[in-house]
Amino acid sequence: MSQPIRLQSLVASPAAGFEQPFEMLEACHERVQRMLALLARLRAHVRENGADVQAQQAARDVMRYFDIAAPHHHRDEELHVFPRLLREADPEVVPVVERLQRDHLRMEQCWVEARSVLERVARAEADRFSAADDEALDAFAGLYGEHLAAEERIAYPRARALMDESEIEAAGKEMMRRRGVTS
């Protein structure tokens, strides 16, 4: 009898609102880490149990997050964090921001292949992962470690220090508007 893939503890996330956009961005990082943990558990589950109902649901949950929430998160950074840091032109920060921007493009590219693997699991078309599947999933998941750390250690604190309250408020409102959230 297979053990269920526990979704609740992996999907639950800290509450942060649009009035605190940097806290919201950090909360998104926690959700990314939870989704990557779910992906790791899903991979182990498929190796033991194939693409059963639990694996199919977990694959759909991971796809939903990286199809919807992750692109919004990256767009938030591209619109509200990175431009402010690039305008400041700090020679120690600019290369970090440029790398983070390149990372976002690589994440999008790697997601296409990783998503294809998960889609086959979600449709119960793959009961195991091939070496190429594992490579695609590893490549995607592997992009996040240093990326998240650089954003939290360098980009967010520096951008927050450069932005005044009106800029922070405007960023939160724009993030809300883009998601269709009303106050």
Any chance you could write out the topology, listing elements then pairs?
Layout: H1 8-11, H2 21-49, H3 53-88, H4 94-122, H5 131-142, H6 144-162, H7 165-178
Description:
It is a single chain. This protein is mainly alpha-helical. The chain has a single domain (17-178), classed as nmb1532 protein domain like (Four Helix Bundle (Hemerythrin (Met), subunit A)), CATH 1.20.120. 78% of the residues lie in helices and 0% in strands. The protein is built from 7 helices and no strands. Helix 3 runs antiparallel to helix 4 and helix 3 (53-88) packs across helix 6. It is elongated, with a radius of gyration of 18 Å. Residues 7-14 have low confidence and may be disordered.
User: How many distinct beta strands?
Assistant: 0
What's the CATH H-level superfamily name? nmb1532 protein domain like
Mean pLDDT: 92
Briefly note the CATH topology name.
Four Helix Bundle (Hemerythrin (Met), subunit A)
Distance between the termini: 47 Å
Could you spell the SSE succession in H and E letters? HHHHHHH
- Poorly predicted runs are 7-14
Q: Identify the overall geometry.
A: elongated
Strand content: under 5%
Rg for CA atoms: 18 Å
- How would a textbook summarize the main sheet? none
